[in-house]
Amino acid sequence: MTEKNPVISIIVPVYNVEKYLDRCIQSILVQSFKKFELVLINDGSTDNSLKICQKYREEDNRIVLISQPNKGLSAARNTGLENIHGEYVCFIDSDDFVEKNYLRSLYNNLEKNKADISICEYFLTDEKGKKLSVEKLNEPENISILSGKNTFNYFYKDNYVPNVVAWNKLYKRSIFKKLRYKEGRYFEDEFIALPLFYTAKKVSFVRKPLYNYVQRSGSIMNSSWTLKKYQDQQLMYQERIEYFKKNKNLMYKAAVQQYKDWITGINYANIDKSYVLNLQKEYRKYFGIRKSNNPKRILKDFLGLLDIRLVSKLKSVSKYIRKK
Q1: Residue 209: beta bridge partners?
Q2: What does the domain layout of the chain look like in residue ranges?
Q3: Could you give the dihedral angle defined by the CA atoms of residues 107, 112, 115 and 116, in that order, rounded to the nearest 10 degrees?
Q4: pTM (2 d.p.)
Q5: Interval 65-76: pLDDT, tens
Q6: How far apart are CA 131 and CA 123, in angstroms?
Q7: E strands within the chain?
Q8: Cα–Cα nearest to 213, from 118, 100, 122
Q9: What is the fold of 8-214?
Protein backbone atom coordinates (compact mmCIF):
# COMPACT_ATOMS: atom_id res chain seq x y z
CA MET A 1 0.00 0.00 0.00
CA THR A 2 1.28 3.47 -0.89
CA GLU A 3 0.14 7.07 -0.50
CA LYS A 4 -3.00 7.15 -2.71
CA ASN A 5 -3.04 10.80 -3.68
CA PRO A 6 0.39 12.31 -3.10
CA VAL A 7 0.68 16.03 -3.72
CA ILE A 8 4.47 15.90 -3.94
CA SER A 9 6.68 13.13 -5.30
CA ILE A 10 10.21 13.05 -3.87
CA ILE A 11 12.81 11.28 -6.00
CA VAL A 12 15.94 10.04 -4.22
CA PRO A 13 18.54 8.19 -6.32
CA VAL A 14 20.49 5.77 -4.12
CA TYR A 15 23.94 4.36 -4.86
CA ASN A 16 26.33 3.09 -2.17
CA VAL A 17 25.48 5.68 0.48
CA GLU A 18 24.88 3.44 3.50
CA LYS A 19 26.72 5.93 5.73
CA TYR A 20 24.33 8.79 4.95
CA LEU A 21 21.06 7.18 3.86
CA ASP A 22 19.35 6.87 7.25
CA ARG A 23 19.79 10.59 7.90
CA CYS A 24 18.47 11.48 4.45
CA ILE A 25 15.35 9.31 4.64
CA GLN A 26 14.58 10.25 8.24
CA SER A 27 14.73 13.96 7.36
CA ILE A 28 12.09 13.33 4.70
CA LEU A 29 9.76 11.18 6.80
CA VAL A 30 9.51 13.83 9.55
CA GLN A 31 8.49 16.59 7.13
CA SER A 32 5.74 18.88 8.42
CA PHE A 33 4.07 18.48 5.00
CA LYS A 34 2.72 14.91 4.98
CA LYS A 35 1.06 14.27 1.61
CA PHE A 36 4.01 12.99 -0.36
CA GLU A 37 5.38 9.81 -1.84
CA LEU A 38 9.06 9.02 -1.46
CA VAL A 39 10.44 7.22 -4.52
CA LEU A 40 13.76 5.55 -3.74
CA ILE A 41 15.69 4.47 -6.85
CA ASN A 42 18.28 1.88 -5.88
CA ASP A 43 20.78 2.29 -8.70
CA GLY A 44 22.65 -1.01 -8.39
CA SER A 45 24.07 -0.42 -4.89
CA THR A 46 26.63 -2.97 -3.72
CA ASP A 47 26.70 -1.95 -0.04
CA ASN A 48 23.83 -2.05 2.49
CA SER A 49 21.88 0.79 0.86
CA LEU A 50 19.20 -1.53 -0.56
CA LYS A 51 18.60 -3.17 2.84
CA ILE A 52 18.19 0.26 4.42
CA CYS A 53 15.66 1.23 1.73
CA GLN A 54 13.74 -2.02 2.25
CA LYS A 55 13.57 -1.43 5.99
CA TYR A 56 11.99 2.00 5.58
CA ARG A 57 9.62 0.81 2.87
CA GLU A 58 8.22 -1.77 5.30
CA GLU A 59 7.73 0.92 7.94
CA ASP A 60 6.09 3.69 5.86
CA ASN A 61 3.49 3.21 3.13
CA ARG A 62 4.46 6.48 1.43
CA ILE A 63 7.69 4.88 0.22
CA VAL A 64 8.08 3.33 -3.23
CA LEU A 65 11.27 1.34 -3.88
CA ILE A 66 12.55 0.66 -7.38
CA SER A 67 15.78 -1.22 -8.09
CA GLN A 68 17.72 -1.14 -11.35
CA PRO A 69 21.24 -1.97 -12.55
CA ASN A 70 23.72 0.84 -12.02
CA LYS A 71 23.10 3.46 -14.71
CA GLY A 72 24.10 6.68 -12.98
CA LEU A 73 22.39 9.63 -11.33
CA SER A 74 20.58 10.94 -14.41
CA ALA A 75 19.13 7.54 -15.30
CA ALA A 76 17.95 7.08 -11.72
CA ARG A 77 16.20 10.45 -11.75
CA ASN A 78 14.62 9.63 -15.10
CA THR A 79 13.35 6.31 -13.75
CA GLY A 80 11.82 8.26 -10.89
CA LEU A 81 10.11 10.68 -13.26
CA GLU A 82 8.53 7.73 -15.08
CA ASN A 83 7.07 6.35 -11.85
CA ILE A 84 5.65 9.26 -9.87
CA HIS A 85 2.06 10.31 -9.14
CA GLY A 86 2.26 13.73 -7.49
CA GLU A 87 1.37 17.04 -9.09
CA TYR A 88 4.74 18.36 -7.90
CA VAL A 89 8.19 16.80 -7.82
CA CYS A 90 11.49 17.42 -6.06
CA PHE A 91 14.88 15.72 -6.02
CA ILE A 92 16.96 15.02 -2.94
CA ASP A 93 20.43 13.48 -3.17
CA SER A 94 20.82 10.49 -0.87
CA ASP A 95 23.89 11.84 0.95
CA ASP A 96 22.11 15.13 1.74
CA PHE A 97 19.23 15.92 4.10
CA VAL A 98 16.51 18.54 4.48
CA GLU A 99 15.05 20.77 7.16
CA LYS A 100 11.67 19.86 8.65
CA ASN A 101 9.75 22.55 6.72
CA TYR A 102 11.51 21.99 3.39
CA LEU A 103 8.45 20.66 1.54
CA ARG A 104 5.90 22.90 3.24
CA SER A 105 7.84 26.12 2.60
CA LEU A 106 8.52 25.35 -1.06
CA TYR A 107 4.95 24.16 -1.64
CA ASN A 108 3.30 27.15 0.04
CA ASN A 109 5.57 29.54 -1.83
CA LEU A 110 4.83 27.87 -5.15
CA GLU A 111 1.06 27.80 -4.56
CA LYS A 112 0.94 31.38 -3.28
CA ASN A 113 2.70 32.71 -6.36
CA LYS A 114 1.12 30.27 -8.86
CA ALA A 115 4.65 29.40 -9.94
CA ASP A 116 6.12 26.43 -11.81
CA ILE A 117 9.35 26.26 -9.80
CA SER A 118 10.15 27.41 -6.28
CA ILE A 119 13.76 27.67 -5.10
CA CYS A 120 15.25 27.90 -1.62
CA GLU A 121 18.65 28.74 -0.17
CA TYR A 122 20.73 25.95 1.34
CA PHE A 123 23.38 25.07 3.92
CA LEU A 124 26.81 23.75 3.13
CA THR A 125 27.17 20.99 5.73
CA ASP A 126 29.99 18.68 6.74
CA GLU A 127 29.65 14.90 6.80
CA LYS A 128 28.67 14.93 10.49
CA GLY A 129 25.83 17.36 9.81
CA LYS A 130 27.49 20.53 11.10
CA LYS A 131 26.31 23.58 9.17
CA LEU A 132 29.29 25.39 7.67
CA SER A 133 27.71 28.26 5.75
CA VAL A 134 24.58 29.45 3.96
CA GLU A 135 24.44 29.65 0.17
CA LYS A 136 22.07 32.48 -0.70
CA LEU A 137 20.17 33.02 -3.92
CA ASN A 138 21.66 35.27 -6.59
CA GLU A 139 18.41 37.12 -7.18
CA PRO A 140 18.12 40.43 -5.24
CA GLU A 141 16.17 40.36 -1.97
CA ASN A 142 13.37 42.53 -3.39
CA ILE A 143 12.58 39.96 -6.10
CA SER A 144 10.08 37.27 -5.12
CA ILE A 145 8.93 36.16 -8.59
CA LEU A 146 10.55 36.07 -12.02
CA SER A 147 9.66 34.58 -15.35
CA GLY A 148 11.70 31.50 -16.12
CA LYS A 149 13.50 33.31 -18.93
CA ASN A 150 14.45 36.23 -16.68
CA THR A 151 16.22 33.91 -14.26
CA PHE A 152 18.84 33.44 -17.00
CA ASN A 153 20.28 36.80 -15.97
CA TYR A 154 21.40 35.17 -12.72
CA PHE A 155 23.08 32.18 -14.31
CA TYR A 156 26.13 34.41 -14.82
CA LYS A 157 26.76 35.64 -11.31
CA ASP A 158 29.74 34.38 -9.30
CA ASN A 159 27.60 31.95 -7.33
CA TYR A 160 25.16 30.60 -9.90
CA VAL A 161 24.97 27.12 -8.32
CA PRO A 162 21.61 27.68 -6.51
CA ASN A 163 20.02 28.35 -9.90
CA VAL A 164 21.21 25.24 -11.73
CA VAL A 165 21.26 22.38 -9.20
CA ALA A 166 18.29 20.02 -9.18
CA TRP A 167 17.81 19.64 -5.48
CA ASN A 168 16.87 22.94 -3.80
CA LYS A 169 13.67 23.22 -5.82
CA LEU A 170 10.07 22.11 -6.07
CA TYR A 171 8.75 21.76 -9.62
CA LYS A 172 5.39 21.36 -11.22
CA ARG A 173 5.60 17.86 -12.62
CA SER A 174 4.18 19.07 -15.94
CA ILE A 175 7.35 20.97 -16.89
CA PHE A 176 9.17 17.63 -17.16
CA LYS A 177 6.64 16.36 -19.70
CA LYS A 178 9.13 16.63 -22.58
CA LEU A 179 12.34 16.86 -20.56
CA ARG A 180 14.65 14.27 -19.05
CA TYR A 181 18.15 14.32 -17.55
CA LYS A 182 20.97 13.64 -19.98
CA GLU A 183 22.30 10.18 -19.18
CA GLY A 184 25.96 9.24 -19.17
CA ARG A 185 27.14 12.82 -18.60
CA TYR A 186 28.64 14.79 -15.76
CA PHE A 187 26.99 18.17 -14.96
CA GLU A 188 23.55 16.68 -15.59
CA ASP A 189 21.88 19.49 -13.61
CA GLU A 190 23.37 22.18 -15.84
CA PHE A 191 22.42 20.40 -19.05
CA ILE A 192 18.73 20.47 -18.16
CA ALA A 193 18.62 23.81 -16.31
CA LEU A 194 18.04 26.06 -19.33
CA PRO A 195 15.19 24.10 -20.94
CA LEU A 196 13.57 23.70 -17.51
CA PHE A 197 13.59 27.42 -16.79
CA TYR A 198 12.67 28.24 -20.37
CA THR A 199 9.57 26.05 -19.93
CA ALA A 200 8.65 27.62 -16.58
CA LYS A 201 6.37 30.65 -16.79
CA LYS A 202 7.00 31.68 -13.17
CA VAL A 203 9.81 31.03 -10.70
CA SER A 204 9.43 32.00 -7.03
CA PHE A 205 12.01 32.27 -4.26
CA VAL A 206 12.19 31.19 -0.63
CA ARG A 207 14.75 33.22 1.32
CA LYS A 208 15.51 30.48 3.82
CA PRO A 209 18.15 27.73 3.85
CA LEU A 210 16.11 24.52 3.93
CA TYR A 211 18.37 22.00 2.22
CA ASN A 212 21.65 20.58 3.56
CA TYR A 213 24.24 20.00 0.84
CA VAL A 214 26.79 17.67 2.41
CA GLN A 215 30.41 18.23 1.45
CA ARG A 216 32.04 14.82 1.21
CA SER A 217 35.25 13.72 -0.45
CA GLY A 218 33.74 10.71 -2.21
CA SER A 219 31.03 12.60 -4.08
CA ILE A 220 30.86 12.80 -7.87
CA MET A 221 31.65 16.52 -7.99
CA ASN A 222 34.69 16.11 -5.74
CA SER A 223 36.17 13.34 -7.85
CA SER A 224 39.33 14.05 -9.84
CA TRP A 225 39.11 15.71 -13.24
CA THR A 226 39.32 13.46 -16.29
CA LEU A 227 39.15 14.14 -20.01
CA LYS A 228 35.55 12.87 -19.95
CA LYS A 229 34.67 15.42 -17.29
CA TYR A 230 36.21 18.27 -19.29
CA GLN A 231 34.44 17.13 -22.46
CA ASP A 232 31.06 16.92 -20.73
CA GLN A 233 31.43 20.38 -19.25
CA GLN A 234 32.47 21.72 -22.64
CA LEU A 235 29.41 20.15 -24.25
CA MET A 236 27.22 21.73 -21.58
CA TYR A 237 28.62 25.20 -22.39
CA GLN A 238 28.21 24.60 -26.11
CA GLU A 239 24.60 23.51 -25.71
CA ARG A 240 23.90 26.55 -23.54
CA ILE A 241 25.31 28.88 -26.22
CA GLU A 242 23.31 27.20 -28.97
CA TYR A 243 20.16 27.31 -26.83
CA PHE A 244 20.40 31.06 -26.35
CA LYS A 245 21.32 31.59 -29.99
CA LYS A 246 18.37 29.52 -31.22
CA ASN A 247 15.93 31.32 -28.95
CA LYS A 248 17.44 34.75 -29.71
CA ASN A 249 18.02 35.35 -26.02
CA LEU A 250 20.05 38.34 -24.81
CA MET A 251 22.16 36.01 -22.66
CA TYR A 252 23.94 34.65 -25.75
CA LYS A 253 27.00 36.90 -25.30
CA ALA A 254 27.16 36.15 -21.58
CA ALA A 255 27.11 32.42 -22.34
CA VAL A 256 29.92 32.81 -24.88
CA GLN A 257 31.99 34.85 -22.43
CA GLN A 258 31.46 32.25 -19.68
CA TYR A 259 32.56 29.50 -22.07
CA LYS A 260 35.73 31.37 -23.05
CA ASP A 261 36.51 32.09 -19.38
CA TRP A 262 36.17 28.38 -18.69
CA ILE A 263 38.57 27.57 -21.55
CA THR A 264 41.23 29.98 -20.29
CA GLY A 265 40.72 28.93 -16.67
CA ILE A 266 41.69 25.29 -17.18
CA ASN A 267 44.91 23.88 -15.75
CA TYR A 268 46.55 22.58 -18.93
CA ALA A 269 49.44 20.76 -17.24
CA ASN A 270 48.03 17.25 -17.70
CA ILE A 271 45.64 17.65 -20.62
CA ASP A 272 46.04 15.84 -23.92
CA LYS A 273 47.54 18.11 -26.61
CA SER A 274 44.88 17.26 -29.18
CA TYR A 275 42.20 18.41 -26.74
CA VAL A 276 44.09 21.65 -26.13
CA LEU A 277 44.07 22.26 -29.90
CA ASN A 278 40.32 21.61 -29.92
CA LEU A 279 39.77 24.21 -27.20
CA GLN A 280 42.04 26.70 -28.97
CA LYS A 281 39.92 26.31 -32.10
CA GLU A 282 36.77 26.84 -30.05
CA TYR A 283 38.16 30.02 -28.49
CA ARG A 284 39.02 31.48 -31.87
CA LYS A 285 35.54 30.58 -33.14
CA TYR A 286 34.04 32.98 -30.60
CA PHE A 287 36.76 35.64 -30.66
CA GLY A 288 35.29 39.14 -30.40
CA ILE A 289 31.98 38.00 -28.89
CA ARG A 290 31.91 39.27 -25.34
CA LYS A 291 29.43 40.73 -22.88
CA SER A 292 31.82 43.42 -21.68
CA ASN A 293 34.17 45.69 -23.64
CA ASN A 294 36.34 46.88 -20.77
CA PRO A 295 40.11 47.01 -21.56
CA LYS A 296 40.96 43.93 -19.48
CA ARG A 297 38.35 41.87 -21.28
CA ILE A 298 39.54 43.01 -24.71
CA LEU A 299 43.17 42.26 -23.80
CA LYS A 300 42.21 38.83 -22.51
CA ASP A 301 40.30 38.16 -25.72
CA PHE A 302 43.35 38.94 -27.86
CA LEU A 303 45.70 36.91 -25.67
CA GLY A 304 43.33 33.96 -25.89
CA LEU A 305 43.24 34.33 -29.64
CA LEU A 306 47.02 33.88 -29.67
CA ASP A 307 47.22 31.05 -27.11
CA ILE A 308 44.64 30.03 -24.49
CA ARG A 309 47.42 28.63 -22.31
CA LEU A 310 49.00 32.07 -22.14
CA VAL A 311 45.91 33.50 -20.42
CA SER A 312 45.90 30.61 -17.98
CA LYS A 313 49.58 31.20 -17.13
CA LEU A 314 49.07 34.93 -16.68
CA LYS A 315 46.24 34.24 -14.24
CA SER A 316 48.57 32.07 -12.17
CA VAL A 317 51.28 34.76 -12.19
CA SER A 318 48.74 37.43 -11.24
CA LYS A 319 47.52 35.37 -8.26
CA TYR A 320 51.13 34.82 -7.16
CA ILE A 321 51.88 38.56 -7.30
CA ARG A 322 48.75 39.43 -5.31
CA LYS A 323 49.77 36.96 -2.60
CA LYS A 324 53.19 38.62 -2.38
Answers
A1: 121
A2: 8-214, 227-323
A3: 20
A4: 0.89
A5: 999 999 999 999
A6: 6
A7: 8-14, 36-43, 63-68, 88-91, 97-98, 117-125, 131-135, 145-146, 169-172, 203-214
A8: 122
A9: Spore Coat Polysaccharide Biosynthesis Protein SpsA; Chain A (3.90.550)
